[in-house]
Design goal:
Layout lengths: L8 E6 L5 E6 L7 E5 L2 H20 L4 H21 L3 H29 L2 H31 L5 H21 L9
Antiparallel strand pairs: 1-2, 2-3
Helix pairs in contact: 1-3, 2-3, 2-5, 3-4
Family: Belongs to the major facilitator superfamily. TCR/Tet family.
Protein name: Major facilitator superfamily (MFS) profile domain-containing protein
Subcellular location: Membrane
């Protein structure tokens, strides 16, 4: 026997940024809420998701080194704003900015490694990129959770990005090639 269909209660609310958030309650008593994001937040989320597509095109037409360092700067500015955000809206917008910079760093890494290696050794170096991404995916939440539980607070997980960039940016400036190379 099929379960009886319960009415769906929907509410819409508009926040101070003009974004409309719609909530639907199923009425089954399970406490589940489905949300739809519209307005400016929808645009920011889609921009962050599709940014790697746009950046791949730029890497084929612009100096690799300058675009990579620009993406690094965008990521670090986003990290600073995230760490110092005083509202959830500021945090979300800064997270989208940092995501744009992060996708530029990833696509740039692939292009720069392609320019610096021969076809025979390229797979090995691209595997190192995959290993680093995997470790970051696993260790990122662990390190962030450790900061959140400590007296340092979660903000230091993002301030740590600035310290790492300060140590590694000189190596990027001195070793990255400047020619445009397009792999996609």
């Amino acid at each position: 026997m099929a379960p009886k269909s319960l009415p769906v209660e929907e509410k819409s609310a508009q926040n101070n940024n003009g974004a409309t958030i719609q909530e639907s309650h199923t009425g089954y008593g399970d406490g589940q809420v489905s949300r739809k994001v519209t307005g400016a937040r929808w645009f920011i989320v889609n921009l962050a998701v599709l940014s790697a597509t746009f950046l791949a095109k730029f890497y084929g037409q612009v100096n690799n080194k300058l675009l990579y360092l620009s993406a690094l700067l965008i990521f670090e500015v986003g990290s600073v704003v995230i760490a110092s955000a005083q509202s959830i809206d500021g945090l979300l917008i800064a997270r989208a900015v940092a995501g744009l910079g992060g996708s530029g760093i990833y696509v740039g890494t692939l292009n720069i490694l392609t320019a610096m290696t021969t076809p025979a050794e390229r797979n090995q170096y691209l595997n190192f990129v995959g290993i680093a991404w995997s470790l970051g995916t696993i260790l990122g939440p662990v390190v962030g959770g450790a900061f959140a539980d400590s007296s340092a607070t979660w903000r230091w997980a993002f301030y740590l990005n600035i310290c790492i960039a300060g140590l590694t940016t000189p190596a990027c400036i001195w070793t990255c090639p400047s020619c445009p190379t397009f792999i996609f």
